[in-house]
Structure formats: structure tokens, C-alpha cells
Design goal:
Blueprint: E1 2-6, E2 9-13, E3 21-22, E4 30-34, E5 50-56, E6 59-64, E7 68-73, E8 77-82, H1 89-106, E9 110-119, E10 122-127, H2 134-143, E11 147-150, E12 153-159, E13 162-169, E14 174-178, H3 179-185, E15 203-207, E16 217-228, E17 235-239, H4 241-249, H5 261-277, E18 279-286, H6 291-299
Parallel strand pairs: 2-4, 4-8, 10-16, 16-18
Antiparallel strand pairs: 1-2, 1-3, 5-6, 6-7, 7-8, 9-10, 9-11, 9-12, 12-13, 13-16, 14-15, 17-18
Helix pairs in contact: 2-6, 4-5
């Protein structure tokens, strides 16, 4: 069994994860193992490529046709059953994304679709839809000396010493970049395309084990990045009140998994606290704009 740290969890796994941080511990928070699906969970999904069921607040089933089946129980165990001949990165992709989102929600944590840097012991996060430019902005800022914190997912939790403050926790030490983003960055630090995320996408992983930060920190600023075909320069607008709340709550990672009343209440409370305690900006960028212009507009608000 392998031991890792990720998403603020001690993870004991039968699957090897180069994406996660190797760790040593006596007690696991989460166990990932191979095995058959429980009979009551494993129901056929017909011709659907992706079939999932939220069985209860503590049980979840996912079937990626011809790739792998996953079963999550109580936020403490994930059972994995790959189809014949399937393994490696394609199985881990879903584990580190949707399946881990389920684990976190079952444990009462709220994952945010965000990348971020650490500055003066405060987090600055970049959110937005997939393809908005979160990871590209992060990679560019890191190349300029800013301290990387997390890519794609930031786990939110309430500060144990101050229940009005939301803290952010990193996910795992890998930055993911599309091939076109690597071309735009034009930086030798991202020229190595050895670790391809999967065979179907021109997306590559870059590890930062040595600078990975496990501690949690308060969130200071959140930038919501949006692509806009109707503009030719970057615009930045501060959001407050209900508008800030409405824009932030859209950024919950795999929001459709928030189904029961307890999770809805947690989601509402977390986003309300973020709205009250963080500065929130909407950043609109041209579809084909430069990362330098986007980063300049953002860093001017630090």
C-alpha cells in the first residue's frame, strides 16, 4: 500500500499516484483499494458513457464506460474496479477529480474550482469556468516569482479558531497546462511534455513537490476570470453583496453533487463567508488576449 497526502487527507492507496505527495502516517483518513462494486450500487447505465448515482449522503457510484467503476463510502473509502486492460493515468484522472470531490463533500469539506498563489500568508485565488485561464495565469505568475499554492481545486474549510473565516487548503502538487497555454507562456520551465494527463488530451502535468504547501491559509482575494468575445482588452470589476455571492457559488467544484440539505447549508454558509471576508473581482479577458496583459491587470489589484 502507498501512503500519500492530498486534499488535507492522509491517503492509503493500492494505486500508485505520482500526482500526490508521498507521506508517512499511522492513521489513514481515506483508503483507496481495488475490489468489486457493492451489488446494490452497481446498476447498469445502458449506453451512457458516464453513469453516476448519488445513492445517499454517504454512498456514491460512478461508472465510466469501458474505463473504470468507482464506489465512495462515507468519505473514508473508495473502491476501484477498472475494466479489463485499463489502468494508469486514465483511472487516476477520475479519482483526482469527481471521485475526490465526492469524498470531500461526504466529509463535510467544500471544494472550490480554483487555482491560487500564496502572498504574505494570504491566499489569492483564480476561479472561472474550464478554459478561462486559471492555470495559465498561475503558471505565468509562478514564473515571475510568486509562490504556487494549488491548481484547479482549493479545499475550503472554516478556521477552527474563527468560525467567520474561511481557510483554503491545497489539493496536490501538480500544475496542469494545455498545449496551447504552454505555447503562449513560451517559458522553458514548461517545455517538458513528459507527463501527459491522458492520451486523449494535449494536456501536461508539472510537479512542484519541493515547494508544495500543506498548511491552510486565509483567503484574501478571489478573481473570477471570464472569456469575452466582445472585448479587445482586459477589464476588472469589483463585486460585492449578492452579485459577489452569486458569482462565487457557481465556482463550487462539481456543484451538481451538492444535493442534500446539509451540504446546501454548508455551501451557502461557505460562500456567504467568502463574500463577506474576501475581495472579489470579475476579470473579463479577450478570447485571444495575452497572458501578460491578464496577469498585469490582476496583479495591479494585489
Amino acid at each position: 500500500m502507498y501512503q500519500y497526502w492530498g486534499f488535507e487527507l492522509n491517503i492509503l492507496s493500492e494505486i500508485e499516484f505520482p500526482e500526490l505527495l508521498p507521506a508517512k502516517f499511522d492513521q489513514a483518513d481515506l483508503v483507496i483499494r481495488y475490489g468489486p462494486m457493492p451489488g446494490d450500487a452497481d446498476q447498469p447505465g445502458g449506453d451512457e458513457k458516464l453513469h453516476e448515482r448519488i445513492i445517499s449522503s454517504a454512498e456514491y457510484f460512478l461508472d465510466i464506460k469501458n474505463i473504470c467503476k468507482y464506489y465512495v463510502s462515507g468519505g473514508k473509502e473508495v473502491v476501484v474496479a477498472p475494466y479489463d486492460g485499463v489502468g494508469g493515468r486514465v483511472v487516476r484522472i477520475y479519482l483526482l477529480a469527481t471521485v475526490m470531490a465526492v469524498v470531500l463533500l461526504q466529509r463535510g469539506s467544500m471544494p472550490l474550482h480554483a487555482s491560487g498563489i500564496l502572498k504574505d500568508d494570504r491566499l489569492i485565488l483564480f476561479t472561472g469556468d474550464s478554459g478561462a485561464g486559471k492555470s495559465t495565469t498561475l503558471a505565468y505568475l509562478v514564473s515571475k516569482g510568486y509562490r504556487i499554492f494549488t491548481d484547479d481545486v482549493c479545499v475550503l474549510k472554516t478556521d477552527p479558531g474563527n468560525d467567520r473565516q474561511v481557510l483554503g487548503v491545497s489539493s496536490y502538487p501538480m500544475l496542469k497546462l494545455w498545449d496551447d497555454a504552454i505555447s503562449k507562456l513560451d517559458d522553458d520551465a514548461y517545455s517538458d511534455k513528459t507527463f501527459r494527463i491522458n492520451n486523449e488530451q494535449d494536456k501536461y502535468g508539472y510537479f512542484f513537490y519541493d515547494t508544495f504547501i500543506k498548511e491552510s491559509f486565509p483567503i484574501k482575494i478571489i478573481f473570477i476570470i471570464k472569456k469575452n468575445e466582445g472585448i479587445d482588452s482586459v477589464s476588472v470589476r469589483k463585486l460585492t453583496g449578492i452579485e459577489a455571492f452569486q458569482e462565487l457559488e457557481k465556482q463550487a467544484y462539481r456543484k451538481y453533487l451538492i444535493t442534500d440539505n446539509e451540504l446546501r447549508a454548508l455551501h451557502f454558509k461557505t460562500m456567504s463567508l467568502l463574500t463577506q471576508n474576501c475581495t472579489v473581482f470579475e476579470v473579463c479577458r479577450p478570447v485571444n488576449g495575452s497572458v501578460e496583459a491578464l496577469a498585469a491587470a490582476i496583479t495591479a489589484r494585489f
